């Protein structure tokens, strides 16, 4: 044993399942899409900023291109004019991909029950975690992200083909 | 540099265009000149360029729908809110438009800032601004039908979901798939 | 009239029918022949501050025509308010300009008060001033952070949001919500300042003043910042007034016009503050004006703290419009009647129209309110500063490079929720 083991310590052998290893990798560095719609995007920016520091969860890197992103946080109200755009962004993301519907408007239309708004983004794209609040506090969003992590931990290669039910936070 | 004496807008317009004004109203400190639609652009130009008036900024163009039982000269009203920075006062010009032909000349030639304000009124209230340089829809998608801010356009809400009607609503609600 | 129903299949969602012919007359002839390039920017673009779409005609990197396209956040707030009573409408106004919710509340409440002729007690007016100026700080901090990020200065964002969290914490103690407090109501404010709020505010102001110097140290004399901003997006004062530009963007062009000074509302005439005015009308001057405005806001709040009466009503006591406090309900039958009437039916307003304008952090926020004689408005229309500023982007961007467009959009401080409503 030479230099390497003296630097790393003697780790020995770690045994794990393939599922756990893959999910660990996916949880640890989930890159969100740099995308904001309305008020919730401001709280999302607050979550990114110094006080709440989203990079604790390996998410400091916002990708502006959907091709490089794993997580779409729909932050804010989705109008009928915007809906095709969001669907296109979702379709451009590479698998595996997840969606958090942030805020009341994105989850169910919120206070705007009217002609202009899509009553929940789940009419357009499949959602993994719903976060309530108008707008949700950064802590609530963090809770939603952790819930998504939990969900991914339960994921297995065998389930990849079959879509799973959403979680409401 | 001395500032010319401020003029009373209603009296000045009456002197320059004797037929233009239908009515002058005061409410809560706001002055409204109700104009005949065909005089609008000429009066606007006059109000902007005359010494003692100088309404150099167009603050707002807002359309209002008096449907269904309107006791006014027309179903639609369009209000132009002018601001005179020199004299620090505001003025409202108002025209009433008929239900079957809500058309009025554009004031983009007087205040270029009217461009989008009029486009918004055109899109959401269906007021036709004659001579407007760009009459595409502004807020709604290009293929949208109807003008949502009219009073006879339904708000278009979705019934609130309870356990007794959830099944019925979910049947009609579009659901996204992978 | 045919009414659009919700799309039921994905094919309907994706249906798009359009051609280049729609753009004839809007872009130059060279674009139709393919000599210049048409480039779509947005609605998903990191530096358009939301969902703004801009169609650019480019000659190399130079912008020939710029056609902004808005409406991706059109929420129908005006139409929804028509179906609510006057008191309930406040909640929706918060969500228009989500960086300055209190300013929207203020504009709406002033319009309602003017329509029904409701007086606001002096103490409530001063409380409103404190909230409005805090909102201005809040909004300018977000603007500063995002504007700097757009130009590649990452660290300002982290500092600006650190201070902003403190303001949000104060808003939370006031109203129970960080962003959308709905703290202002027709006739005054929702409740009195909670205990300890004024002390927190005072210590925050002490803490905040040197922080503005910190931001300036990062940007004002930074050669990269100056290169990116000076001489960019120039708008002449005559042009700015003709296009209806207002607020800091107008003052950056050298027009000394601030509604708080020139047409004061809510006792602003009693405050002593300066109106910072720029000189060149470029991005850099607009930046300087906003930085100086933050300093002035701090001054205004400090004066307001001195002026604030220790005791007095925080909301009008006209029971025809303002619901009685909870404590009165157990003792007075009349209070119960008023409470029931105001929360079920609401108060009615005459069939008249009013227009009110206030100085929001972005510029002149105008509210046009038309009553029906009943308890719900016939029409409410917001003339929002972002809407006007986006409409004048074409004249500001002409002849500039595509990278400068980002700087210009940031410098006029647009919020798309404010623009589209």
Structural summary, described in words:
The complex is a heterotrimer of chains A (169), B (178) and C (421). By secondary structure, chain A is α/β, with parallel strands linked by helices. Chain A has one domain: Rossmann fold (3-Layer(aba) Sandwich), CATH 3.40.50. Chain A is 34% helix and 9% strand. The N and C termini of chain A lie far apart (50 Å). The model of chain A has no long low-confidence stretch (mean pLDDT 84). Chain B is 21% helix and 26% strand. Chain B has one domain: NADH:ubiquinone oxidoreductase Nqo5 subunit (Beta Polymerase, domain 2, 2-Layer Sandwich), CATH 3.30.460.80. Chain B has four helices and seven strands; from the N terminus they run H-E-E-H-E-E-E-E-H-E-H. By secondary structure, chain B is of the alpha/beta class. By secondary structure, chain C is mainly alpha-helical. Chain C is 47% helix and 11% strand. Chain C has 19 helices and eight strands. Chain C has a three-stranded antiparallel sheet. A three-stranded antiparallel sheet of chain C has the order 6-7-8. Chain C has a two-stranded antiparallel ribbon with strand order 4-5. The longest helix of chain C has 29 residues. The radius of gyration of chain C is 23 Å and the shape is globular. Classes of the chains: A alpha/beta (169), B alpha/beta (178), C mainly alpha (421). At the A-B interface, loops of A face loops of B.
Which key terms come to mind for this protein?
heterotrimer, A: 169 residues, alpha/beta, Rossmann fold, 4-stranded parallel sheet, 9% strand, globular, C: 421 residues, mainly alpha, Cytochrome-c3 Hydrogenase, chain B, 3-stranded antiparallel sheet, 19 helices, 47% helix
Strand order of the largest sheet of chain B: 1-2-5-4-3
* Rg of chain C computed from alpha carbons, rounded to a whole number of angstroms: 23 Å
In quaternary terms, these chains amount to heterotrimer
Give the DSSP E fraction of chain B (strand runs of 2 or more residues).
25-35%
Question: What is the element layout, followed by pairings?
Answer:
The complex is a heterotrimer of chains A (169), B (178) and C (421).
Chain A lengths: L2 H6 L9 H11 L10 H10 L22 E5 L7 H10 L5 E5 L1 H5 L20 E3 L6 H16 L13 E2 L1
Chain B lengths: L8 H8 L4 E7 L2 E6 L4 H10 L7 E9 L10 E9 L4 E9 L5 E3 L8 H12 L2 E3 L35 H7 L6
Chain C lengths: L9 H5 L14 H5 L3 E5 L11 E7 L2 E8 L7 H5 L7 H6 L6 H16 L5 H29 L4 H21 L8 E2 L2 E2 L7 H23 L3 H7 L7 H6 L5 H4 L7 H4 L20 H25 L18 H4 L3 H12 L8 E8 L2 E8 L8 E5 L1 H7 L1 H5 L4 H10 L4 H5 L1
Antiparallel strand pairs in C: 1-2, 2-3, 4-5, 6-7, 7-8
């Amino acid at each position: 044993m030479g230099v390497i083991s003296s630097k790393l310590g003697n780790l020995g052998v770690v045994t794990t399942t393939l599922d756990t290893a893959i999910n660990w990798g996916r949880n640890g560095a989930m890159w969100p899409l740099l995308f904001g719609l309305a008020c919730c995007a401001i709280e999302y920016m607050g979550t990114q900023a110094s006080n709440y520091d989203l990079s604790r969860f390996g998410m400091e890197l916002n990708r502006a291109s959907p091709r490089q992103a794993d997580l779409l946080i729909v932050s804010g109200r989705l109008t009928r004019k915007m809906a095709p755009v969001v669907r296109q962004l979702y379709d451009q993301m590479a698998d595996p991909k997840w969606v958090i519907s942030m805020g009341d408007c994105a989850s169910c239309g919120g206070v705007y029950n009217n002609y202009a708004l899509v009553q929940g983004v789940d009419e357009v794209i499949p959602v993994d975690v719903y976060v309530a609040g108008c707008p949700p506090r950064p802590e609530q969003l963090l809770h939603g992200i952790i819930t998504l992590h939990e969900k991914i931990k339960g994921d297995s290669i065998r389930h990849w083909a079959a879509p799973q039910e959403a979680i409401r936070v | 540099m001395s500032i010319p004496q401020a003029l009373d807008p209603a009296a000045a317009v009456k002197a320059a265009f004797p037929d233009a004004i239908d009515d002058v109203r005061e409410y809560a400190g706001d002055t409204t000149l109700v104009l005949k639609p065909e005089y609008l652009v000429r009066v606007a130009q006059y109000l902007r360029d005359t010494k003692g008036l100088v309404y150099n900024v167009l603050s707002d163009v807002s359309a209002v729908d008096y449907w269904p039982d309107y006791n006014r000269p027309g179903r639609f009203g369009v209000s132009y809110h002018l601001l005179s920075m020199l004299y620090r006062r505001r003025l409202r010009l108002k025209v009433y438009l008929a239900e079957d032909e809500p058309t009025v000349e554009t004031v983009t030639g007087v205040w270029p800032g009217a461009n989008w304000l009029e486009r918004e009124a055109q899109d959401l209230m269906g007021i036709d601004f004659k001579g407007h340089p760009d009459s595409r829809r502004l807020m709604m998608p290009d293929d949208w039908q109807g003008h949502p801010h009219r009073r006879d356009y339904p708000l278009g809400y979705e019934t609130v979901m309870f356990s007794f009607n959830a099944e019925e609503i979910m049947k009609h609600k579009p659901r996204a798939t992978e | 009239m045919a009414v659009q129903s919700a799309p039921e299949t994905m094919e309907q969602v994706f249906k798009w029918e359009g051609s280049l012919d729609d753009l004839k007359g809007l872009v130059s002839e060279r674009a139709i022949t393919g000599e210049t390039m048409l480039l779509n920017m947005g609605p998903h673009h990191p530096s358009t501050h939301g969902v703004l779409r801009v169609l650019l005609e480019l000659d190399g990197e130079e912008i020939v025509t710029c056609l902004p396209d808005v409406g991706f956040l059109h929420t129908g707030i005006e139409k929804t308010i028509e179906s609510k009573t006057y008191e309930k409408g406040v909640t929706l106004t918060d969500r228009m300009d989500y960086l300055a919710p209190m300013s929207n509340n203020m504009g709406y409440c002033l319009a309602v008060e003017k329509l029904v002729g409701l007086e606001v007690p002096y103490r409530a007016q001063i409380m409103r001033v404190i909230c409005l100026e805090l909102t201005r700080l809040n909004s300018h901090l977000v603007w500063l952070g995002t504007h700097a990020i757009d130009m590649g200065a990452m660290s300002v964002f982290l500092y600006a949001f650190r201070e902003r969290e403190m303001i949000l914490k104060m808003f939370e103690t006031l109203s129970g919500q960080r962003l959308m407090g709905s703290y202002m109501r027709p006739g005054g404010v929702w409740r009195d300042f909670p205990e300890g709020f004024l002390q927190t505010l005072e210590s925050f102001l002490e803490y905040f003043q040197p922080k503005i110097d910190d931001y300036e140290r990062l940007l004002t004399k930074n050669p990269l910042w100056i290169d990116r901003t000076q001489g960019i997006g120039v708008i002449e004062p005559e042009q700015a007034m003709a296009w209806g530009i207002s607020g800091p963007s107008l003052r950056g062009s050298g027009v000394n016009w601030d509604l708080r000074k020139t047409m004061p509302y809510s006792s602003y005439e009693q405050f002593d503050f300066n109106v910072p005015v720029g000189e060149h009308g470029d991005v850099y001057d607009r930046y300087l004006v906003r930085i100086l405005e933050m300093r002035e806001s701090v001054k205004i709040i400090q004066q307001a703290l001195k002026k604030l009466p220790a005791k007095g009503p925080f909301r009008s006591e006209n029971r025809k419009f303002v619901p009685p406090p909870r404590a009165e309900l157990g003792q007075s039958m009349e209070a119960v009647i008023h409470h029931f009437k105001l929360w079920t039916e609401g108060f009615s307003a005459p069939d008249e129209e009013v227009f009110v304008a206030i100085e929001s952090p972005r510029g002149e926020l105008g509210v046009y309110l038309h009553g029906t004689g009943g308890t719900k408005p016939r029409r409410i229309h917001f003339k929002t500063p972002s809407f006007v500023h986006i409409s004048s982007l074409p004249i500001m961007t002409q002849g500039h490079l595509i990278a400068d467009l980002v700087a210009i959009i940031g410098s006029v401080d647009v919020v798309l929720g404010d623009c589209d409503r």
